[in-house]
Specification:
7 strands; single chain; 3-stranded mixed sheet; 4-stranded parallel sheet; alpha/beta
Length: about 200
């Protein structure tokens, strides 16, 4: 499995699951056309793009192109790269019928095709060992952000303070915190009451 520096944006959870088997990267879903209305997620993508850059990897069908076009206007184009998959006829295993256009989406692509698409987009492949000292689930528990009374409210306050979407799972929050802050900065943020 290869590690990629940029944040990868895909349409849905099945695309994310497929990609997780191929690369070690932060992967965010647009939840299809929901991205058009989700201002919090748009803001998150802009923030992540500034910090790490984005790679947009959508299906090659019409819907994928509409989402890709929307993201071109929602995020600074200088911070976004586009990865394209080829038109391959077929249907995904989980579906009873092929897509309207009769081609495979991201979830149906073989790993080597996904890696080629990411390489062609200019993804930054990172061969260095995983950095130690990142924020862990144990840190979230120790800091009262998970597993305790009032932890959900404390997470929401932190998310608001950092300009993160309110509807993040604990795993999404952990992944995002490791992009936008350090363990020391997180502890410092939590020392002060909300404004």
């Amino acid at each position: 499995m290869v590690k990629i520096k940029e944040v990868i944006v895909v349409e849905g959870r099945y695309d994310k699951n497929t990609l997780r088997q191929v690369v070690d990267a932060t992967i965010i879903t647009t939840d299809g056309f929901q991205i058009f209305k989700d201002r919090e997620k748009q803001a998150l993508l802009r923030s992540l793009a500034q910090r790490r850059g984005l790679i947009v990897l959508t299906d090659a069908d019409g819907a994928g192109q509409v989402i890709r076009g929307f993201l071109r206007g929602a995020v600074d184009p200088k911070q976004v790269r586009h990865a394209y998959i080829p038109d391959i006829p077929g249907k995904e295993k989980r579906k009873s019928a092929p897509s309207k256009e009769g081609t495979l989406g991201v979830e149906g692509m073989r790993p080597e095709i996904l890696l080629t698409a990411l390489r062609n987009a200019g993804a930054t492949f990172d061969d260095s060992p995983a950095a130690s000292g990142g924020i862990t689930k144990a840190d979230l528990f120790r800091l009262g952000l998970s597993g305790g009374e009032g932890s959900a409210e404390k997470r929401r306050t932190l998310q608001k303070r950092l300009g993160l979407p309110a509807r993040m799972s604990a795993n999404q929050l952990l992944e995002t915190l490791n992009i936008v802050t350090t363990p020391a900065e997180l502890e410092e943020l939590l020392k002060y009451p909300p404004p």
